Amino acid sequence: MVKKILKIFRWVVALLFVSSILCVVVYRFIPVYFTPLMLSRCFEQIGNGEHVKLYHSWKPLKEMSPSMPVAVIASEDQRFLTHHGFDYQAIEQAAKEHINGNKRLRGGSTISQQTAKNVFLWQGRSWLRKGLEAYFTFLIETMWSKQRIMEVYLNSIEMGDGIYGVQAVAEQHFGLDAKDLSRSDCALIAGTLPNPRRFSSKAPGLYMRKRQKQIEKQMTFIPAFSEEY
């Protein structure tokens, strides 16, 4: 009986392993139209008695404003082009601040990690989810280009209440196409990403305007994002 259970367990693990790799390979080539985060937000809205809001349109990176990837790199992950999925310097700094009693914890999550989490996993802070996040981050860094990681990230990231991706936020908050967003628009959108349901790019307050200017300043030190990465 024990041997049978172990055999089934091994088959399940092997199946999950193979299917995870297949998913990563498939998403290397086809658009990501729906994610676990979108599903969980829809259930939250239903549970709160609200109408379901889901705005999302896939947009190739070459059809977005060239300032958009520069803005999110400046805001979220300035070593995106040089690390391999994990920013160990940011992780070390976050750990030091936590040890020193800093109550406002700094995030060490890279764009690659956020992409892995949003596309393949559920939301949460369990050790299991963090372990799977590291696993999928390794896979996409191995099998995708930086260009593809950025493209999927900018199409799947939450950018407002029921708003996912650059094209959707451009339409809903600016009345524009993603390719027509200005440098300042992109900086403002990037500034909301730590908490896009709290901070709005549609009705930014003083704090968001300050963040926008800071990100625009940082963007001057970030190289243009090209197809070579």
Automatic annotation (TrEMBL):
Domain called Glycosyl transferase family: residue spans: 54-219
Keywords (A to Z) from UniProt: Cell inner membrane, Cell membrane, Cell shape, Cell wall biogenesis/degradation, Glycosyltransferase, Membrane, Peptidoglycan synthesis, Transferase, Transmembrane, Transmembrane helix
Primary localisation category: membrane
EC top class named in words: transferase
Subcellular location: Cell membrane
One GO CC term, this protein: peptidoglycan-based cell wall
Catalytic activity: [GlcNAc-(1->4)-Mur2Ac(oyl-L-Ala-gamma-D-Glu-L-Lys-D-Ala-D-Ala)](n)-di-trans,octa-cis-undecaprenyl diphosphate + beta-D-GlcNAc-(1->4)-Mur2Ac(oyl-L-Ala-gamma-D-Glu-L-Lys-D-Ala-D-Ala)-di-trans,octa-cis-undecaprenyl diphosphate = [GlcNAc-(1->4)-Mur2Ac(oyl-L-Ala-gamma-D-Glu-L-Lys-D-Ala-D-Ala)](n+1)-di-trans,octa-cis-undecaprenyl diphosphate + di-trans,octa-cis-undecaprenyl diphosphate + H(+)
GO molecular function: pentosyltransferase activity; peptidoglycan glycosyltransferase activity
Entry EC number(s): 2.4.99.28
GO BP terms, alphabetized: cell wall organization; peptidoglycan biosynthetic process; regulation of cell shape
Gene3D superfamilies, alphabetized: Biosynthetic peptidoglycan transglycosylase-like (1.10.3810.10)
Pathway entry: Cell wall biogenesis; peptidoglycan biosynthesis
Keyword Hydrolase applies: no
Membrane-spanning parts: 12-34
Domain of life: Bacteria
Topology relative to the membrane: Single-pass membrane protein
Protein family (similarity comment): Belongs to the glycosyltransferase 51 family.
Matching PANTHER family: BIOSYNTHETIC PEPTIDOGLYCAN TRANSGLYCOSYLASE, MONOFUNCTIONAL BIOSYNTHETIC PEPTIDOGLYCAN TRANSGLYCOSYLASE
Described purpose of this protein according to its UniProt entry: Peptidoglycan polymerase that catalyzes glycan chain elongation from lipid-linked precursors.
Record-given protein name: Biosynthetic peptidoglycan transglycosylase
Organism: Prevotella bivia
Lineage of the species this protein comes from: Bacteria, Pseudomonadati, Bacteroidota, Bacteroidia, Bacteroidales
